[in-house]
Amino acid sequence: MNPRLLAGGLLALGYNSLVSHLPSRHLRRLYLSAWLGTVGSGTGVQTGCRFLNGRKIHFGDRNVINFGCLFDGRKFEIRTGSDVSIGPEASILSLGHDPQSAEFADRGGDVVIGDRVWIGYRAIILPGVTIGDGAVIGSGSVVTKDVEPYCIVAGNPARKIGERSRDLGYRLNYDPRFL
């Protein structure tokens, strides 16, 4: 077996099974800073989040990653901008299968999430999607294609339902002690 794959699998197992459930944000951040591709300044990851191939996951500054999220960086990258809020139990996938393939071949792509994006509870972002700055993804939505900046989308598949103000100046600063 490839030693790098084994090491990566052990790091994932260690975090997903044990560290992810520790009630110390600081211990989780220390582990993730060593394992993930990038963890920006002020970014917090709450309990119960799972990561597949952490080296391909890059969080910008001041992200709020709520409890129970899944980040699938097995083959392609996931990148977030700054001040991104990802709701509880959201899933961001970068790899799936081609339904037309007789061999059940892989199909996927990088997921890129812009600055000040707000992703709602249990939303699912599918492989190869880019979400523009300031966009809002409604709770439970399934995002199958790119989302324009400052659009509000919802549903399955997600469709545009509105526009968000372009006058956004907030900087997330959420620091729960035990989440």
Short account of what is shown:
The protein is an alpha/beta fold and 179 residues long. It has helices spanning 3-17, 25-35, and strands at 38-39, 44-45, 50-52, 57-59, 64-65, 70-72, 78-80, 85-86, 91-93, 95-97, 106-108, 111-113, 118-119, 124-125, 130-131, 136-137, 142-143, 151-154, 159-163.
Describe the protein's architecture and organization.
With 179 residues, the chain is α/β, with parallel strands linked by helices. It has helices at residues 3-17, 25-35; strands at residues 38-39, 44-45, 50-52, 57-59, 64-65, 70-72, 78-80, 85-86, 91-93, 95-97, 106-108, 111-113, 118-119, 124-125, 130-131, 136-137, 142-143, 151-154, 159-163. The radius of gyration is 16 Å and the shape is globular. The model has no long low-confidence stretch (mean pLDDT 95).
